[in-house]
# Entry
Amino acid sequence: MARAAACSISAAATASSCGFLEERPQWEAFGYEVSERYAGPNVSIGELPDEQFDLITSFYVFEHVEDPVATARELRRRLSDNGTLFLAVPDTLVNPIDVLAADHLSHFGLRSLRAMLDGAELVLTAASRTSMAGTWLVAARPAQAVTGGADAVDGDDDVTALGRYWAEAASSLQRSAGAVDPRPASVAVYGAGVYGAYMKTRSGLPAGAVRCFIDRNARKHGTTFHGLPVHDLDGLGDVDTVLIGLRPDQAEALAARPELLDRRCIALPAWTAPSA
# Structure
């Protein structure tokens, strides 16, 4: 019987595997995770066994590991000679804040994905950055199972463009925030996430100027983030300046909301993903 093994199970991956088994009931699926948080039916907590599988899937794992090549080699060792490795990693060029995420130890574009797989004697056979928003989806097979390579799957990681963007973003944010003469607690940050944390910590505003974070996610309301309370939009009160901690392509629409029209809004500069 053919086997499908997932080396990481998240809520999205669990739903995908259930759909896969509905379409291919002849397959047997095994899930493996390192965290009890994702325990569930057919999911084991711990290391992958030393067995052979015809399909191994990895959802948002490789960006977290210290040595992606070594991890790919371990998966290759468990992959049948004609098997397929299918993996998903964030597309940093779509969401540039990914390079600042503390728990993302590696960042991938097509060139670095190919190099990682080459180091594990795997050949990248298919790749898409459009099938799932903000994500690279990649398939690879053992080198001996592939004839003729995969020359059509090629590209650049454009890391210099990312570096230039963040240098410009830091200068732009500090210039804009420097033009504000804030009263104590007269500033709010929209977005209790990585972008919001960046806006608060890199703005250069004096201590005590930022009153709170604003977030549409109701589960965050009543909690704290970076030591400040998190409210919905109705918690702005007399705040007169809002730092918009969202992706640049989302900031303009937010600034047009009625709650923000009479307030100064400061956002990051526009970002266009190269080769998107």
Q: What stands out?
A: The chain is about 25% helix and 25% strand. The helical segments are 11-23, 68-77, 110-118, 159-178, 194-202, 248-255. Residues 3-157 form a domain with the Rossmann fold fold (CATH 3.40.50.150). The two ends are 40 Å apart (CA to CA).
